[in-house]
Amino acid sequence: MAAQTPAADGGQKQPITPRSARGLRTRNALITAAREVFERDGYLDARITDISKAAHVASGSFYTYFNSKEEIFQALVAQVQEEMLHPHLRERTGITDTRQLIDASNREYLRAYKKNARLMGLFEQVAQVDEKFMALRIERGNAFARRNAKLISALQASGEADTSLDPLITAHALSVMVSRMAYMVFVRGERIPFERLVTTLNKIWENGLQLTPSDPER
Q1: Stretch 9-24: mean pLDDT
Q2: Integer Cα distance of 102 and 106 in angstroms
Q3: Residue 13 scores a pLDDT above 50
Q4: What ranges in the chain are assigned the alpha helix state H?
Q5: What is the DSSP letter of 45?
Q6: Using CA atoms, how far apart are residues 141 and 18, in angstroms rounded to an integer?
Q7: Neighbouring-strand partners of residue 5
């Protein structure tokens, strides 16, 4: 197993980025275990010893890959964020119709949020008291908005969406709407059927962009 590398200033050690298959398995096992412990015990009460135990590794192995529980929580959030961004949706699905693409995007996001609801709720809590995680939360929102702004700009260029709208501001507004509704339903437990939630959000997206009527021959 790789050893830690002392920091040049004698302070906190720099965790190793694993290159071997064994190292990758150990790091991934720690992240999986961290999810279990954070969701069970909460962020404040989670302990590194419990994470190591759940991952079936020695406690010292934790510090080969992470300096603290804050760092492993950050890695866990980054992993979930990548899943929830559902990249390359158009290429993966072959969908070209705008309304179908909005529907598929919202469905993937809401399913991912539901799957990760306990962690997302915890992330929201931690972001309120830790500046680093607030910055991560903001960047996560910005990533969604930038992606959606590209879609909106393309729709405006093709004459499908209202050209008076600012793409980025509109993207932020629509993205926040979807994410807060996801939080309300999947974290707070508001009883809204999944299909009703999706179709309502889709309609608000369509109305907000003032999409032109679908071509019946397409």
Answers
A1: 64
A2: 6
A3: yes
A4: 21-41, 48-55, 59-65, 69-84, 89-93, 98-115, 117-127, 131-157, 167-182, 194-209
A5: T
A6: 29
A7: 14
Which phi and psi angles does 15 have, rounded to 5°? -60, 150
Give me 140's structure tokens.
């996560």
Orientation angle between helical segments 131-157 and 69-84, nearest 10 degrees: 10
Separation of alpha carbons 134 and 56, rounded Å: 31
Alpha carbon 215 to chain centroid distance? 34
How far is Cα 1 from Cα 26, in angstroms, rounded to an integer?
Answer: 10
Q: What angle do CA 85, 150, 100 make, to 5 degrees?
A: 70
98-148 residue pLDDT tens: 999 999 999 999 999 999 999 999 988 888 888 888 888 888 889 889 989
Measured CA to CA, the distance from residue 28 to residue 43 in angstroms comes to: 19
Residue 77, helix vs strand vs coil: helix
Rounded-to-integer distance, Cα 186 and Cα 193, Å:
11
Angle made by CA atoms 192, 194, 199, in degrees to the nearest 5: 100
* Domains (range + CATH), the chain: 21-75 (1.10.10.60), 85-209 (1.10.357.10)
Q: How far apart are CA 35 and CA 46, in angstroms?
A: 10
